[in-house]
Each structure stands twice: as C-alpha cells, then as structure tokens.
Amino acid sequence: MMEKMLKGIRVLDFSRYLPGPYATLRLAEKGADVVLAEPPDGEPARSLNRTVFAANNRMKRSVTLDLKKELDRRMAIELAAKADILVESYRPGVIDRLGLGYEAVKRQNPAIVYCSISGYGQDTDGMHHLASHDLNYMALTGMLSQLKDEHGKPVHPSIQIADFLGGLTASEMILAALVHRFRTGEGAYLDAALTDGLYAMMNTNYAISKENGGHKGIKEISGEKVCYHLYETMDRRYVTLAALEPKFWRAFCEFAGRKDWLSRQFVRAEKGFPIYEQVSAYFLSKPLEEWMEISLQLDCCLTPVMEIGELDQYPLWKQRAMTIRNGSQLATMYPVPEKISEAPKQGEHQTDIVNEWLHQGVHTTGGDKR
C-alpha cells in the first residue's frame, strides 16, 4: 500500500549529495514519480561516492539538463510547469540566477510545492552563503555536545545525522504542503534548513538544560544510571539495557536472581558503585549470542548492539520484510515492494520524461542518453 500512496505525483529533483536525494527517495518509496534533473557532468555524488548515489537514488528516473544553456532552461521550466513538487539544494541564490527560482516557476505553475534545502536557510545574514557539512550542523545546534565519551570529548558520529534528519524534515514539510494544496489549491515555498531540523530536535534537551543548570539531557536516559546503560559482554560486544520503568527493572533483576538490586535502579553507572560493578560483571558472564537469545524472551528492554553486516540475520528485519538487495555494487536495505528499480543511469529517461510530462505520451522503456 505504501508504494501507491503518492502515485501520480510528479517530483522534479535538482538536489544533490545526500539530504535532498534522501528526501525525494522517501517520496519515491511512496509511489511518486521522481525525476532527477542532472547537470551534464552528472549529480556530483555519482563521482564522489557511487554507493551513496545508488543507495539514495533508486526508484527514480533521470534527465540531463544544462541550466547554463537557454534551451535546457526552457525545458526545465516546462518540466517544472508539469510537476507537483520541485526540490533543489543549490547554495542560496544560485538557482534564481539560473532562471529556475521559485518566482520563475510559480509564474508557470502557481500550485507548485517548491522546496529549497540548504544548511542555514535561504536568507540568514552572515551564514547562508557558507559551505558546511553534517559535522558542522551537529556542532552548531548542540547535537554534537550530547555525544561525549567518558572524558567529555565529543564523539565523531559515523552516520550523517544532520543530512538524513534534514531529508526527513524536508519530506515532512513537502507532504504537509501537498495536503494544504489539495485542500486549498495553493502552492507553497519551503525553506528547509538542515540546522532547523536538528535545532528543533534539541527541544527537550534544551528545556531540561535550562531547568537543571546546564545538564546535557534527561539524567535517567543519558547513560548515567545503572538501569539505562550500555554494557560489555564476554566477547567484547555490547548490549543496551533500557529498563527505565520499574516493571522492566524488576523483570531484569528477577531473571538475574538478584532481588537485592531492585531498590538500586537509579544508582549511578560508575566504577566504585557496587551495583554497577555487579551488573557489569553479570553482562560480562555471557557472550553476545546468549544475550541476544535472552533479549528475545525476556521483556525488560534489552537489545544487542548489532553491526551493520549482521542486520540481515536478525529476526526483526526478516519479519518486517526488510531485505538486502545487491545491485549497482552496493547492498541496499529496503522494505520490499512489488518492484524496486536501481538508481538510474545519467539521462536514461530523457525521451520518456519529455513524452510523458510535456507531450502526454505513453511511457516507453529505455531513454535518450543525450
């Protein structure tokens, strides 16, 4: 059902790298017809990291447009006039200079949902023109300060949190604008800043920090308490125990045969505190595989810390119809619909898109590589 929800919705995608392509991937997964409008040398991620490109541009089609040329600019405007949604992630001001800004598109298509994705917003004085990446956005919004090691040093993330969250935020904004358009007939311009998404996510931590004099977050779930902590196993792997509610802590203590731990749920998880050392030793008594089996039977908020390469073997992802698909030299994880198409070749669908969008022709296979 999910892959049919946006059937018939056309998306013209001028975004690049990760946030925008991830946002439009979310739309493609729901059935939208997403067309990548690539420059002559291709969407930059194609050459920077083919795996990143392939993972975030499956289920899309591709045309090649050189917006520096008058003929291609006119074609781009014609395609935008037929689109429901346009997404772009050029630096602020660039797409206007190329003749495809919101006002230019709106004149041809007043109902367009037009989303500009950037780091700091389109008109933020002193910053909108600056180049930045995921790590910069996390640093500025306070997100990175929440991820520290035992010495207080921020931990370098190995996943692009700002980029992916920014893509999700943009897709959420687009879908809300689409609902508004269906109700009123009005289009919308969306200024989707990656920092806005992260900043909004810090809402709870900010409130807690103001309330308790600068503490980084909710103490009970910040890893400082014995009931909500990461523990090492016998084979130097890790499990997460998140027994925040008393009933889950009780279930864990009773399974361990340590009712004497019951009243010590919120003791600090630090060396020198006997219960922390006892619980740590208990987890060290079994390898991860045993704890994994226990976690599937014992209802106490206990889960193993899985490595990416192990996910396809975990029961949850098998039962949730997730799969790993090998294609375009990558492994792609995706809830399986009837059909998944791999990321397109550059300009693969040039003729198809012109026929379908501009000439209202019948969809054909193949395409003009131009």
Tell me the CATH topology of the largest domain. Answer: Rossmann fold
Spatially, the strands of the biggest sheet line up as 3-2-1-4-5-6
Known CATH architecture of the largest domain = 3-Layer(aba) Sandwich
Could you list the spans in which at least 5 consecutive residues all have pLDDT below 50?
326-333, 361-370
* Secondary structural class: alpha/beta
Helix content: 25-40%
Strand tally, please? 11
Percentage of β-strand residues: 15-25%
Largest sheet: 6 strands, parallel
Keywords, separated by commas or semicolons:
formyl-coa transferase, domain 3, 37% helix, disordered C terminus, alpha/beta, Rossmann fold, 6-stranded parallel beta sheet, elongated, 370 residues
Topology:
Blueprint lengths: L9 E5 L4 H11 L3 E6 L6 H4 L1 H7 L4 E4 L5 H13 L2 E4 L5 H4 L4 H7 L4 E6 L15 H7 L20 H24 L3 E6 H8 L1 H9 L16 E5 L5 E5 L3 H11 L17 H10 L4 H8 L6 E3 L10 H5 L2 E6 L2 E6 L14 H9 L12
Parallel strand pairs: 1-2, 1-4, 2-3, 4-5, 5-6
Antiparallel strand pairs: 7-8, 8-9, 10-11
Helix pairs in contact: 1-8, 4-6, 8-9
What does this structure look like?
With 370 residues, this protein is of the alpha/beta class. It has 15 helices and eleven strands. It has a six-stranded parallel beta sheet, with helices on both faces. Keywords: Transferase. This is CoA transferase. GO terms for molecular function: transferase activity.
